[in-house]
Amino acid sequence: MELEAIAPSGLHDKVLELISTLPGRQVLDAPAGYGALTKKLLDKGKNVVAADIDIQKLMVIKNENLESVKLDFNDPILSLDDDSFDIAISIEGIEHLQCQWNWVRSLYKALKPGGHLIITTPNILNFNSRMRYFMEGRYEHFKRPLVNGKSWSKDLENYHIAPISFFELQFMLESSGFDILDVHTNRLASKNMISITLRPLFRLIYFYKNWRDVRRNRGDHRRLYKTILSDALFFGECLAVLARKPFV
To answer: pLDDT class for 159, splitting at 50, 70, 90?
Structure first.
């Protein structure tokens, strides 16, 4: 049975590739959507808790290793047991939430010590997105403004409301206790002649910004800027961040 995958092209494949390198069988998939990734995880022998605000969509999956949980991810108190999961997966969810910090902290609490998080979101720092923001004041994947009483009802139900760049996501994850291990992408959607030609200019800009910050005792951010200018962030369509909850 083939279930509808509502994630961008190649994203599920990248997530499954990452999971294949991680230990443990207890997996949280939230939000689970129509269950396309959930089913793939079950097929790989994982025990999955699939959480979503609408779990009726998951009823078509019949598997003794699946538990469906109804969750509103904006709720300040989420019914997830502490220290329960080896792996938590949050695919294209955080950009829909009003309470992003609460969600990240909830994922941290739900993971066992040493457990891993894979969290993805549209990459608003890729070259195409930067150019769209320069021209329109809107990021890629956040193209249409929401207007109360005027926006299409489908937009109101499904639209990305909270763009988050790697700058903010890194701070959010690390402030919540996570160690960031790596950053990946599903595909290089912005790699073209213009973006390749202009990346050295961005390197020069970040070099100057870091030199100025170091000189003013505001910190050395070379590692962060190197990540920002990596292929995954400068050209990638979606961020896929791999992080870990420390053992202690």
So the answer is: confident
Whole-model pTM? Answer: 0.92
Over the stretch 170-189, which tens digit does the pLDDT of each residue have? 999 999 999 999 999 999 99
Task: Delineate the domains of the chain, giving CATH numbers in brackets.
Answer: 11-192+235-244 (3.40.50.150)
Question: Which token pair is 87?
Answer: 């792996």
Contact 130, 121 (CB under 8 A): no
Give the per-residue pLDDT at 161: 83
For the chain, the DSSP string reads -PPPP-SPTTHHHHHHHHHTTS--SEEEESS-TTSHHHHHHHHTT-EEEEEES-GGGGTT---TTEEEEE--TT-SS----TT-EEEEEE-S-GGG-S-HHHHHHHHHHHEEEEEEEEEEEE-TTSHHHHHHHHHHS--TT--S---TTTS-HHHHHH-------HHHHHHHHHHTTPEEEEEE-S-BTT-SHHHHHHHHHHHHHHHHHHHHHHHTTS---HHHHHHHTSHHHHTBSEEEEEEE----
DSSP at 53: S
Are 185 and 240 in contact by the 8 Å Cβ rule? The answer is yes
Give the rounded percent of residues in the chain with a pLDDT score beyond 70.
94
Rounded Cα distance, 116 and 214, in Å: 33
Give the whole-angstrom CA distance, residue 51 versus residue 94: 14
Q: What does the pLDDT look like over 66-113, one tens digit per residue?
A: 899 999 888 887 888 899 999 999 999 999 898 899 999 999 999 999
Distance CA 166, CA 78 (A): 25
